[in-house]
């Protein structure tokens, strides 16, 4: 029942159906590794990953013996999606290659594709015979539960096959429970049945069975009207807080970061600030502000009363 309810949340389908294979995974990372192992087992040799991306992505795919190629996704200095360069790079993909795409609330940049860009990307996926692997880790943190998966839903409706890695860590608050799932949409019921068999075998030699505690929580929430309404309300409260924080950051006028207003156009917990390694070291030594070397910032972690102070110190040059 966990898989059925989660798939309904993701795809809006009332059941898994005969052409969708599904398996519970050990978090979203476990779903990505299963997808990588499945792709490799089916003969795929290469996966395309946008840059920058979540640091663990490339390691997961390399560990599954996939060759990792990259496409430019985001320009940190201008805070914009490099869509034309992204599409140009993916034109070099071969039939059967996998392309990783973030469904929403891109980690680490917060940038997202427009509806028109999603359509162009799906057209390319179809034309080149690319298998999309869609990473969905933050549904509900961007514009809304339905809005955040609009591009994903169009992709699975139009692409003959797709893999969707889903995490319940953030939107259900189950990070340490390692609750996730991998869904694979296939062109036929027979193919989906074979895929399901392979997924079970891959999971068996990896983690055998996933823990049920987190899945039981998700199952209970999505199966009960009152609990689901409460959950959606709490999720909306967190989403509204993040949106408000982004608006406050974007309103700060700072000549040292003219692209700062673009923060409000991004979504989710993270953004990637245009700061140098020297600035990051200075912030740690002089201000007690710690940022990863990439410049990623967790917007949701900013105290509301300190937004102006923190941002001002990050971009203050001596």
Model description:
α8 (213-223) packs across α9. It contains 11 helices and 11 strands. Helices cover 43% and strands 17% of the residues. The N and C termini lie far apart (58 Å). It is α/β, with parallel strands linked by helices and 318 residues long. The strands form 3 sheets. The chain has a 7-stranded mixed beta sheet with strand order 1-9-8-7-6-2-3, sandwiched between helices. β4 (74-75) and β5 (80-81) form a beta hairpin. It folds into 2 domains: 2-223, Type I PLP-dependent aspartate aminotransferase-like (Major domain) (Aspartate Aminotransferase, domain 2), CATH 3.40.640.10; 240-314, Alpha-Beta Complex (Aspartate Aminotransferase, domain 1), CATH 3.90.1150.10. The chain is globular and about 60 Å long.
Summed up, the helix count is 11
Shape: globular
> What is the tally of beta strands?
11
Uncertain runs with pLDDT below 50, 5 residues or more?
Answer: none
Mean pLDDT: 94
| Beta-strand fraction estimate | 15-25%
Rg (C-alpha, Å): 20 Å
At the first level of CATH, the class of the largest domain is Alpha Beta
Oligomer: single chain
The total domain count is 2
């Amino acid at each position: 029942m966990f898989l059925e309810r989660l798939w309904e949340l993701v795809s809006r389908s009332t059941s898994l159906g005969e052409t969708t294979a599904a398996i519970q995974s050990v978090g979203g990372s476990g779903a990505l590794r299963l997808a990588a192992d499945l792709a490799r087992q089916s003969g795929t040799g290469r996966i395309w990953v946008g840059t920058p991306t979540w640091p663990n992505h490339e390691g997961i795919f390399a560990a599954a013996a996939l060759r990792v190629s990259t496409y430019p996704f985001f320009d940190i200095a201008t805070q914009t999606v490099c869509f034309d360069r992204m599409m140009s790079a993916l034109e070099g993909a071969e039939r059967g290659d996998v392309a990783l795409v973030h469904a929403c609330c891109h980690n680490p940049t917060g940038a997202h594709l427009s509806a028109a860009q999603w359509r162009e990307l799906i057209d390319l996926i179809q034309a080149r015979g690319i298998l999309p692997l869609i990473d969905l880790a933050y549904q509900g943190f961007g514009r809304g539960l339905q809005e955040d998966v609009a591009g994903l839903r169009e992709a699975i409706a139009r692409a003959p096959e797709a893999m969707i890695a889903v995490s319940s860590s953030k939107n259900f608050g189950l990070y340490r429970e390692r609750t996730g799932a991998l869904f694979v949409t296939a062109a036929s019921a027979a193919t989906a049945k074979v895929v399901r068999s392979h997924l079970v075998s891959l999971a068996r030699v990896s983690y055998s069975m996933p823990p049920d505690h987190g899945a039981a929580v998700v199952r209970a929430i999505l199966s009960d009207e009152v609990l689901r309404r409460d959950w959606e309300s709490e999720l909306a409260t967190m989403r509204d807080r993040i949106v408000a924080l982004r608006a406050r950051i974007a309103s700060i006028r700072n000549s040292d970061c003219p692209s700062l207003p673009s923060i409000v156009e991004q979504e989710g917990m993270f953004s990637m600030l245009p700061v140098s390694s020297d600035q990051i070291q200075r912030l740690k030594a002089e201000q007690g502000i710690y940022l990863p070397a990439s410049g990623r910032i967790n917007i949701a972690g900013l105290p509301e009363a300190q937004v102006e102070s923190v941002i001002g110190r990050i971009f203050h040059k001596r």
